[in-house]
Design brief:
Blueprint (H helix, E strand, L loop, with lengths): L1 H21 L4 H15 L5 H13 L4 H40 L2 H6 L1 H28 L8 H11 L8 H28 L1
Helix pairs in contact: 1-2, 1-4, 2-4, 2-6, 3-4
């Protein structure tokens, strides 16, 4: 049992290390890879639970990839699991940036045609990696013609520079309040039907 427990800690660290090492484009680009690793490959978490953790990770301040790694690690193995998952996510970037800082100067990167070409090729792939989790999240959230206007208007308002009205925190709070209100109304209707 102790060996199995050690194994899952190692697997958790190794999975997030691999995700951190081979994902370009930040948190959103990592989501589909994290989902594939955690939900599809290891079956550690159900898809609905993963989407709930993703919503929590997005609502918290900080780096999305680290937040989701911490949330998954905590769900699986508490504090130790969250620390190992977060370390696995952070360590590859830290080591890569450290090597770049030691061996390459900004001018060397800018003037190197090979490196510039590599980054030009990576950009379109990153866009696809960001779009993929948006589509799967929309399907899992059961968006339909009645609710699709919510993310569309939210994205539009955040993208426009309207001061306080473009603050993502406002829409997180409004979304939470809206969800709570719908739940409270459904509970009230349920009590009325039981009363009759």
């Amino acid at each position: 049992m102790a060996t199995k427990e050690k194994n899952i800690y190692w697997q958790l660290f190794a999975s997030f290390f691999k995700i951190g090492a081979f994902t370009f484009g930040g948190g959103w680009a990592m989501i589909s890879i994290i989902e594939s690793e955690i939900v599809d490959k290891h079956h550690w978490i159900e898809k609905d639970d993963f989407l709930d953790l993703l919503a929590i990770a997005q609502s918290l301040p900080g780096i999305l990839a680290v937040n989701i790694a911490t949330a998954v690690g905590d769900k699986l193995r508490g504090t130790r699991g969250s620390m190992l998952a977060a370390a696995g996510t952070i360590l590859p970037s830290f080591l890569i940036i450290l090597c770049i800082a030691i061996f390459l100067t900004p001018d060397m990167i800018k003037n190197n045609r090979v490196i510039s070409s590599i980054f030009m090729g990576i950009r379109p792939a990153v866009v696809a990696l960001i779009i993929a989790p948006v589509i799967t999240s929309a399907k899992a959230a059961k968006l339909n013609w009645k609710t699709v206007w919510i993310p569309c208007i939210t994205a539009l308002m955040i993208s426009l520079d309207l001061g306080y009205a473009s603050n993502p925190i406002l829409y997180i709070v409004l979304g939470g309040l809206g969800g709570f209100s719908i739940w409270a109304l459904s509970q009230r209707k349920l009590k009325k039907t039981k009363g009759h």
